[in-house]
Amino acid sequence: MSAELELSFRPDDQLTEVMRLRVQSLQQRGQKRQDGERLLLPNEAVYRLDFSRQSLRFSHWTVRLAQAGRLTVTATSQLWTPDLTNLMTRQLLEPVGVFWRARGDAAVQCYEADVHEFGERIAELAKVRKVMYFLFAFAEGCSPETADCSISFTKDS
Prior knowledge:
Elements: E1 2-8, E2 10-11, H1 13-29, E3 44-50, E4 56-65, E5 69-75, E6 97-101, E7 109-110, H2 112-126, E8 131-139, E9 147-156
Antiparallel strand pairs: 1-9, 2-3, 3-8, 4-9, 5-6, 5-8, 6-7
């Protein structure tokens, strides 16, 4: 018997602010990023997913975009410890989840194969992690206020 577990992505405002301060600090001092460092872009924010269980199988995504726009979700690897190190490009996982809603269209579209593989990868990483961090990039009219994203898994009960 299996039951479904839906986990909502939650904004990590503190970590987003720390990463924005890193960008601001480099700009103020006229310095460049470290070789391979991934700086947070103005349209990005850090989100987190907390796992209450480790034995999960990916089921489906639920993404709601209140208006036309594009949401790109990128996972970070377990090698990134945000309190100790800067985010490096090699710590970003592929594939990414790309979701969009066109003007006049009610349904949210995505690249099905990529988001399914992405969901399976998250389920695999959940076996060894209690929390995962993600970069959410908002574009073409999408914003944190108009987007809601969760991922569902099946679990053995």
